[in-house]
What we know:
B: alpha+beta; Ribosomal Protein S5, domain 2; 12 strands; 28% helix; exosome (chain B); ExoRNase_PH_dom1 (chain B)
Amino acid sequence: MMAAKEEDKMAVAGDGCCLRPFSCEQGLLSRPDGSAAFLQGDTSVLAGLYGPAEVKGSKELPDRAALEVLLRPKVGLPGVVERSREQLLRQTCEAVVLGALHPRTAITLVLQVMNDAGSLLSCCLNAACMGLLDAGLPLSSLFCGVTCALDANGAIVLDPTTRQEQEARAVLTFAIDSAERKVLMATTKGSCSVEEMQQCLAAAQRAADTIFQFYRDSVRRRYSKS
Amino acid sequence: FRTVEPLEYYRRFLKENCRPDGRELGEFRATTVNIGSITTADGSALVKLGNTTVICGVKAELAAPAADSANKGYIVPNVELPSLCSTRFRSGPPGEEAQAVSQFIADVIENSQMIAKEDLCIANGKLAWVLYCDIICLDYDGNILDASTFALLAALKNVQLPSVTLNEETGLSEVNLKQKNPLTIRKHPVATSFAIFDDTLLIVDPTAEEEDLATGTVTIVTDDEGRLCSVHKPGGSPLTGAKLQDCITRAITRHKEVKKLIDKVIKSIKPK
């Protein structure tokens, strides 16, 4: 599989916040059916996808594919935080993957955190989506992850670094789908008012446009080479 | 028909804007709270949301605070979904759902700042309280998140901590069991869960059957001032911003009802 590398610096004009430069590499691992590495600034996550494959008896679902997500942190053993993140990722992927086309099979998504420099969950989401694309699984829509941080003044910072996340009053992560820019997944840390949440959501939806454009360019570049 | 085609059965009800158990789409099940039932725990509460029964016990212990936050105590929530409560849970190490709910409760405590960890500190750098909050589900009939947060809130309101003094010479702590103080609870977070059906319909407080048929769930945690402590939407069908806003408004109304219930119960046990 040829690997396609892309460097893009995206700026979202208007509210003065921009996403960090991100890049993606697909098809870099030989064993998994699909693999992708997604880098957002210094945060990088490697995703490997196996499926649709043989499923063990108890996990078999008669009408759809059984999706399993494994998230491995950079150091240490996976703990409760990883489990809850796995659940978020799994249910997000289940909503887009057309599992009904592959009943009684298992799709396994393994994510390895290579480096965590802020916005980890959205990087995982983006890596997962690129991995699903690389594996060629049938999807109803694409999705992307965007993290917003609200600092002490109420200003929105998109794609925050670790430092910005720690200093922020609230950090919100959204998974936006590509079909109608609706919210697939939302999770918040810290408290915020309802208006602030709606503003963050609007900013995330705007940023999602640039990310989806990046997906397009990335896939186009990859297939035009081969 | 219900067992053979559950989704069709439900759709027929949803078309008439009601549910098989007779509730409206926006109606909660009967909520009952029982405080102080466990005498061996420092604080306890039993919450019943329809058939879902959750009990929370809080035990307070003494420990040395962490090196980097010398003036902060600890709150350790743990949610258990034993095989007693439902056939879907097996005995053994906690499954994914139990861990995810535990993490959710820990996030709610952290986000809402309901108890300032500085209040739990007794002597800077030497002694602090650790509150072990054990939430056990006795009967799982859906909406475990709401019931757990409610049980936790009620149990913490019930907690009475004995006063502790640190003896300077010996370095030992002296616990005075006769003199007890309640915890200062700053915020009262209340969770409201919704289930999404067929990408459009939102129903409040789903039962276990409804959760299985639903295509997604949303949980909103609000506090006293109408601020959002947590928006928890673990995947599932996509929602527009407007629908999310509807959920939030419903959650704020629910918060008022729950707060009234808690205040009533606390007042009823006050004369001891």
